[in-house]
Amino acid sequence: MAISLNTPLPFRFRFLTQLPSSTPPSSFPLSNLTLNSPALNHNHVRSSRFKFPPAAKLPSINCDYTTFEVRDVSYQPPGTQLKLLNSVSFSLPEKSFGLIFGQSGSGKTTLLQLLAGISKPTTGSIYSQKYGNDGNPIKPPEPLSPERVGIVFQFPERYFLAENVLDEVTFGWPRQKGSYQLRENLALGLQRAINWVGLNGISLDKHPHSLSGGYKRRLALAIQLVQIPDLLILDEPLAGLDWKARADVVKLLKHLKKELTVLVVSHDLREFTSLVDRSWKMEMGGNLREESLPL
Ligand SMILES: Nc1ncnc2c1ncn2[C@@H]1O[C@H](COP(=O)(O)OP(=O)(O)OP(=O)(O)O)[C@@H](O)[C@H]1O
Fold it and tell me: Which end of the chain has fewer CB atoms < 10 Å from its terminal CB, N or C?
């Protein structure tokens, strides 16, 4: 049996979250979801790219603010004498857009990998710091947890594995039955992410590789947005796209910037000019310094 937009809403929602039949109706506009969808039947987590437990986080509405801080971070890959990052420090306030540019091979991707917890700094620290209205810290610094960082790699579509859009987004979800709260959060997070990136107009049954270049990037973003990340990082988000898709992705990031803290590595400086709040240049040898975009 296929679930479509015509399926009664309570059933569609119950299907995704396996709720008891007494659960009140809820809107969940999934299309073409099938009961045999492998993403919903496996009993194990197939991927680590969706990390748990989720902590549903809504954007703060008080006057306190948080910054993401990188302090004196150096990185030497294990077993080498090579220093790829050399005492890198910078600070990015929440809900702002940071851009790192610089020559190929200077260490930009390496830095993003440290922020996402894929590698560990050899020295230095990466943390978030909460401040009060008066600009003074109101809590001790907290290490930036990799679970709270969303990363979209360069050419993310190369890593798509599933047969349809829905399975691609839910690929790393837990397969065992979770609590009602967990499943509800995931379902609502999925709906929000799909809407945010503008994928709501397309069938979730479509093969990810049949999407246009721009829509593939939207899908890659949606995967990271099911749980709202504290920090969203993107490596060369415009690479390989035509002018129309590039403009669409920039527009989407402009929209996301209102809700999220975004850090981008890119060579495409012109397109991002209107979004950038802070920018840094990575020099060869892994030296980072704050610098305006050279336009
Ligand atoms: N594990 C590693 N061991 C040794 N060298 C590495 C390792 N990882 C990356 N490098 C080297 O470190 C340098 C920095 O790589 P990185 O990918 O971070 O640069 P980049 O600035 O992102 O480049 P691009 O703009 O081309 O993506 C490169 O010379 C790369 O070959």
Answer: C
Q: Is the CB of 104 under 6 A from ligand 1?
A: yes
Asked whether 81 lines ligand 1 (CB < 6 A), one says no
pLDDT exceeds 50 at position 179: yes
Q: What is the ipTM of this complex?
A: 0.95
Catalytic residue among 163, 236, 259, 291: 236
Q: Is 110 in the pocket of ligand 1 (CB under 6 A)?
A: yes
Q: Is 236 a catalytic residue?
A: yes
Nearest CA residue ID for atom 25, ligand 1: 104
For the Cβ of 109 lying below 6 angstroms from any atom of ligand 1, the answer is yes
Strands (E) in the chain, as ranges, are: 2-3, 33-34, 65-75, 85-93, 97-102, 123-131, 142-143, 149-152, 231-235, 262-265, 278-283, 287-290
pLDDT tens digit string along 185-212? 888 989 999 998 999 889 999 999 999 9
Residue 61: in which H helix or E strand, if any? none
Q: Answer yes or no: is pLDDT of 35 > 70.
A: no
* Distant-in-sequence, close-in-space partners of 168: CB < 8 Å, separation ≥ 6: 160, 161, 162, 208, 219, 223
CA of 208 to the centre of ligand 1 (A): 29
pLDDT cut 90: percent of the chain above it = 64
Query: Is 173's pLDDT higher than 80?
Result: no
Place of tokens 């950038």: 276
CA distance 187 to 241: 30
For residue 267, pLDDT beyond 50: yes
Position in ligand 1 atom list of the atom nearest CA 107: 18
